[in-house]
Design a protein that fits this description.
Helices cover 35% and strands 17% of the residues. The protein has helices spanning 3-12, 48-53, 55-72, 79-89, 104-108, 136-140, 172-184, 203-209, 236-247, and strands at 16-20, 93-98, 115-117, 120-127, 133-134, 159-163, 187-191, 213-218, 230-233. The strands form 2 sheets. A 6-stranded parallel sheet has the order 3-2-1-7-8-9, with helices on both faces.
Length: 252
């Protein structure tokens, strides 16, 4: 399928689901944390069970999250984030499922009703005991690693970044909504995901088996390319620049 034919299909659809991964945010200056030089090469992610059991592990978690907090203070949504918002404005977006924890889709203007952050967000801090939420600045601006790790002002429970850590259960409602959207999608578009992290990477398969046209836009090949109806390898911003004028006059 050529890009013009893909854009024509998008233009006709009123049930588009976008599924985004780290690649959509690299052009905003958010590094792929797994790549050489990424944050995870400096601070190893902490297993959830270790976070609960060990103060040194909690310190390690907060060191990593303070580094990402400093980064996320400055990054802004890019053309691709904004382009997805345009589909919502035209009434074509069934839902946006993201693996990212950078919060850029929400900053771009995607509504809560249309957004599932499968792995949570680094834009909030939460108490694991009572669920109280904190703005990141209220925690990170006063914490450094010579202090005890942050505790809830209401109940004294452990505070943790509101992302889903390794070993932590996936959010039930987010998974339910993502499954439902995948089953209902007319067009399912993967943007910037290597499709190697489960269970999230199963949603494109669900969509395809439910009758959706599956498109994959990513810098590099993915394990699901052979299943897809449309595959585009290259820069994501340039891809959206190319299709934006072809989709701009879609009917509401």
């Amino acid at each position: 399928m050529q890009i013009e034919a893909f854009a024509a299909r998008l233009k006709q659809s009123s049930a588009i689901v976008f599924f985004t991964g780290a690649g959509i945010s690299t052009e905003s200056g958010v590094p792929d944390f797994r790549s050489p030089g990424g944050v995870w090469t400096k601070y190893q992610p902490v297993l959830f069970q270790d976070f609960l059991a060990s103060e040194p592990a909690r310190v390690q978690h907060w060191q990593l999250k303070k580094a990402t907090y400093e980064l996320f203070k400055t990054v802004k949504p890019n053309l691709a984030h904004q382009a997805i918002c345009d589909f919502e404005k035209r009434g074509q977006l069934l839902g946006l499922i993201t693996q990212n924890i950078d919060g850029l889709h929400k900053l771009a203007g995607t509504s809560e009703e249309k957004l599932v952050e499968l792995h949570g967000t680094d834009r909030l801090v939460t108490c694991l005991e009572c669920g109280k939420r904190y703005e990141p600045a209220d925690v990170y601006e006063s914490w450094h690693d010579s202090l005890s790790t942050p505790a809830c002002s209401d109940c004294g429970g452990f505070l943790k970044s509101a992302n889903v850590s390794f070993g932590q259960s996936m959010p039930v409602e987010a998974m339910r909504r993502a499954q439902s959207w995948s089953e209902q999608a007319d067009v399912f578009v993967v943007i910037g995901s290597s499709l190697q992290v489960q269970p999230a990477a199963s949603f494109p398969v669900v969509a395809k088996r439910s009758g959706a046209m599956l498109a994959i836009v990513n810098r590099d090949p993915t394990p699901l390319d052979d299943l897809a109806d449309f595959v585009h390898n290259g820069a994501i911003g340039a891809f959206f620049q190319q299709i934006k004028p072809l989709c701009a006059d879609a009917a509401n």
